[in-house]
Task: structure prediction
Amino acid sequence: MLGDKALKDVPKNVIHPNEELIKTHCSYCGMQCGMNLRVNTKTNKIIGVEPRYEWPVTEGKMCPKGVTAYQQTNHKDRLLKPLIRDDASKKGTKEGFREASWEEALDLIVKNFKSLQGEYGEDTVSVFSGVSMTNEKCYLTGKFARVALKTKYIDYNGRFCMASAAGGSLRSLGVDRGSSLPWTDLHQTDCLFIAGSNTAECHPTSMYRVWEVQNRGGYLIVVDPRETPIARRADLHLDLRPGTDLALANCMVHLLIKNGHIDEEFINQHTNGFEETKELVELFTPEYTSEITGVSPEKLIRAAEIYGKAPNAIVMFARGVEQQSKGVDNVSSYINMALVTGKIGRPKAGVATFTGQGNGQGGREHGQKSDLLPGYRKITNPQHVKEVCEVWGITPEEMPGPGVSAYELFELMDKKEIRGMYLLCSNPAVSAPNLNFVRNAMKNLDFMVCSDFYLSESAEFADVVLPTTTWSEDEGTVTNLEGRIIKINQAQKPIGESKTDWEIQIEIAKRYGKGKYFEHLKTAKDIADEFRLATKGGNADYSGATWEKIEEQNGVFWPCNEENVNGTPHMFLDKKFYHPDGKAKICALPYRPPAEEPDEIYPLRLTTGRVVYHYLSGNQTRRIPFLKDMCPEPYVEIHPELAVKYQIEHDELIRLYTRRGEATYKVKITEAIRKDTVFVPYHFGHKESINLLTNAALDPMSRMPEFKVCAAQIEKL
Amino acid sequence: MKKVLYIELENCIGCRSCLAACTQCGGHEERNRNYVIDVNPFVDRQTMPMMCLHCENPPCARSCPVQAIQVHETGAVLSAMTEKCLGCQNCTIACPYGIPKFDVEQNLMYKCDLCIDRTKDGIPPMCASVCPTDTLQWVTEEELAVKKSQFRLSNGMMASMEDPYLENKTNVHVSLPGILEGKEKLF
Result:
């Protein structure tokens, strides 16, 4: 069923009468599963899905979100016309909107943004973006903010998703490509060490490769506070307390050194920082680490033994370790395992993060981040600024400086330093932490624009809502969780009066008097060509990744340039890392506890995550009947012993609260969770949002909020 | 090459993608004909798909007073022919696995037909096409034979649900949980 063998025997597709199949990829997570959209050739409407068996990463497989993704396009909730709300007192509700023409809506936006900027300075208007959209759109959004709006305040929802993985990879390896190797290597390795990833629910189509490792006699080690569906079948489940990963990873390195499972030649030739790390991890004996993590010393010893002995192994991690106030340190500490053992820079061995959003990888590389420009260039590096200015046709003096991270944008809104926001491709009214604060900051904005294809919870705070297109009504590239640039194809013309985000931005730019920087971009392909040029010479170099090459090769792995004409599926094969001296950095990272530890008033640990039926804030998936039926509402997972202590029963409603907020949830009793921890899925809006309770303690490097652990208490109602 | 549906229960993660995909098959009127059970939801996350096993001598067809349930030449036990089905529900009672369901409004039984408009041409059924975990696989007889020889439980019991069959001889083959018990590790 796997890899090359399957590709020799690819099943045919069924094509019904009056239908055609459009090859594309899913709209949701970083797996970017291949799919064919079924289009009725008489109505030119998308009507269904057919597996895309020849796509090498997923071979036709799809999760329930993928199977039903097509239902988004012609959904009854689609916004078909711009909406304007004249009565600002109705902000924060669905009320008060009226339909308007594009002319009126765009003119109003430009009038209000310009008036705010005239009074309070250019930076008073901010852009809050997302990465569930193509590279072309992500690239243009960065240019739009800096060239048209001339604001430094642009950031994006990847701060709530991939920022810590990016920070950790940059520090350890000098480059941030989520996976050092293609996904088609996964099932061929001998040991998967997976930390903080509920892979079965968040990246389900990875699972057949994960199980194949075990079917071949290899090992699966899972680090997670919950016995998730992947942990259930793992050879070893390290059921740690939320927020203690750094101690666990340090213990792994301690044991790898102690057991002689390190590769001294690799360490000497290709890394820095080993000696100080060795000294630091000495403290992290299995007994000491067990006290911090709650994982038994025997399990810790066994895990290090398996990883150490494995001829090939892959260390993988996800939001569980990354969404912490020490997320970057967690990532670097897990990468340490691969660096001390030399299990990186060859096929079947390496490190990988499970990218959350569809274009979480590409979207963070090309200038939507407050401090980055296309090609992973730094806005604080004058040479980098100069290179991008040449492509954009502006002078370096005109380039705004670095801004602040996503959550900090809301803090500046609260301080009235930011008074306007252009929000697209994101739903922070559900997905940001500490939501009482965030929602209030949005409500008090002088003027807010939201571009979305449904009326999201965040759109309820907007003065103007612009109807944009779904992924199926535009084309462009996306970079999947492997670092493979792939092509999204248009299957249907935009419905109603909806427009793509890049068309909208060009329209606004024209009205801003900045048409000359944008008018030459008539199609997504035009943007792609300029975008590739803008990445040339950067770390994330896409210059050689033409749409034609992507089509021919089933995707192109970056870097792809004159040196690597066909792209780079495996990173570091020459054992050269991206720091100036070519060496990777083994990081000595002292343990520190989560920002908020349990105490007498808040004795429990709250952690959050996804379910298989929903994607991110649920703005899309909660509208799909099948997915809604399967998981209509949030719940709180509680261990039976904890339930007895609080005298609560399955299905009973309880009040869950933290220092920041409270919500009412139905109890779900399960033994598949630690006795000191409760879990709530985060896909729900309004009063059901668990992010009313979560902690916005930010990682000092990545500015990632600590979604994954805070102190909480339960009250029986 | 003839292929058969093979179920490896050990792999199921309960994502119910097979249900969503079932609704996509041309002849299924956007209604799923397979089911997924939470085995012991208070204890762990184990789940299992409940699929029609396409019995060689199917109780559903045998119990039908009007031969509305036909067996296709591929062995697939088809859904009731709409023009023949009386709505007597004998089949829903006769099936040992509870697969045939009854639509009260249409007064009609419906069940899995193994995506006959796909499998008649050798194309895998929708459920096995999308299954992210290889719980549902579309395999050749040779691949099936390898599975059968591999998966034996340490107590001598086969992990394969046949010979002796729990109920009938079936065209769909099942490995019960436990397939990794006797697995020799690489190191």
Chain B has a mean pLDDT of 89. The interface with chain A takes residues 10-11, 13-17, 19-21, 23-24, 26, 41-47, 117-118, 121-124, 126, 129-134, 137-139, 179-180, 183-187 of chain B (CB under 8 Å).
